[in-house]
């Protein structure tokens, strides 16, 4: 029987595709909440995280910040093939080169830098209803204390 730590290590280094849902939540001027969940291609939960940053940022900047954080976290956890599902179509279009927004150039450059760290990366759009768990984490980051991210 494989011990739990060995099973987790094996899952992290596995080259199958992983899917990561990302979300942000805004609450007036109090800041933005970020949430992400990594699951395998069968939908099984693997990892998650949430965070809050102070200050008011436009929705697009919050979404880019969440994606950068998710890219960094995924890479640090050892994932090399991953698909990022987000519920902001305009950001997904920007990342996939289907739109241009000079105001977000710095964020897009950072996303591009992290994109190169992976063997395979996809950025796909899913409606908010299909991204509920990551959205719950993002809202929780705003409303509750964060003891673990």
UniProtKB/TrEMBL annotation:
Gene3D superfamilies: Ribonuclease H-like superfamily/Ribonuclease H
CDD domains from the UniProt entry: RNase_H_like
SUPFAM superfamilies membership: Ribonuclease H-like (SSF53098)
GO molecular function: nucleic acid binding; RNA-DNA hybrid ribonuclease activity
Domain RNase H type-1, first and last residues per copy: 26-141
Name of the protein this chain belongs to: (thale cress) hypothetical protein
């Amino acid at each position: 029987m494989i011990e739990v730590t060995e099973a987790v290590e094996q899952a992290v280094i596995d080259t199958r595709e992983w899917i990561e849902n990302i979300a942000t939540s805004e609450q007036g001027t109090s800041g933005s909440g970020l949430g992400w969940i990594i699951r395998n291609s069968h939908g099984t939960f693997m990892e998650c995280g949430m965070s809050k940053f102070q200050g008011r940022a436009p929705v697009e900047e919050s979404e880019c910040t969440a994606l950068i954080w998710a890219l960094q976290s995924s890479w640090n956890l050892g994932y090399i093939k991953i698909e990022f599902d987000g519920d902001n179509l305009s950001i997904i279009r920007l990342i996939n080169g289907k739109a241009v927004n000079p105001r977000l150039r710095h964020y897009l450059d950072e996303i591009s830098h992290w994109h190169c760290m992976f063997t395979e990366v996809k950025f796909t759009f899913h409606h908010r209803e299909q991204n509920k768990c990551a959205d719950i984490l993002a809202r929780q980051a705003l409303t509750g204390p964060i003891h673990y991210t």
